[in-house]
Structure formats: structure tokens, C-alpha cells
Amino acid sequence: MTQTEPARAVTRLVGGTELPIPGRWQIDPGHTELASVDSGSEARDEHLRSADFFDAAHHPRATFTGHVADWRGSCGLLVGELTLRGITRPITLQAEYLGYAADPWGGHRAVFTASGTINREDWGLTWNMPIDGGLLVSKEIRIEIDLEAVLQP
Question: pTM (2 decimals)?
């Protein structure tokens, strides 16, 4: 007779909400969408990538490091530091756990979303052009993250 090992539990109930177990969860870049430059206009996106704004030629990456704080149920805060154009500032994003899924390769995936708004001028992104009744470019940048993380052995 062959014995099989019981399936490993990868979620737990906390206050009546199913959450992933503690452990090392690695972000899957193939199933993650970050707040890249996407304004709905390719010409505008190119201008946003220029030296007037993000200067992507000299600063090709934005980085974020953070940790979860004040988690309640399936929602919490993602608190950390965002670096744009070599300038690092603290930010807080609203985060939500969307669920768990087993993948076809035996992996265990947790799905999350996080979002928030920052003032671009806090990172030195100050280019603007006056127009009748105001300014051409909003000071606000919306950050949106959708990601899958895979439990590591």
C-alpha cells in the first residue's frame, strides 16, 4: 500500500477571513501588472517618459519597498518607500487580498491588488504648462498594482 503525504494547507482563517499562510511568497513577474506609464495616449506617454517628467532614459526603473500594516480581514495598507528619478519618498497604498489558486504545476498562488495616489511634485516632477482656466497636467499620479505571488518551498 502506498502512503501519500497530506496536502499542505496554504491558507488559514483569521477572524473569519481566508488569508495566505505566513511564508516566503515570491512575486510572479509574468502575472503582475504595475503602474507603468499609461495615460491612454501614446504621444502623451512618450512625453511622460521624457526628461520633462520621469526621464526614463536616465531612470528606467521606479522601485518600491514596503510591508503590510494595519491588516483587517482581506484589506490593509502597504506602507513603504517609492523611488522615482532617484528621489525616495514614503507612500501608503490600499491593499487587498483577492484569493488563492493552485496552479497546474503544483504551485500555490495568492492574488493581491494595491493602489493609491501620489503628488508627482514630491518627486521633482514639476513640468507643466498653463492653459485657460488652469494647468495642462494634473499633480496627481495614480499607482495601481495587480500581482500574483507564489509560495516558495
Answer: 0.82
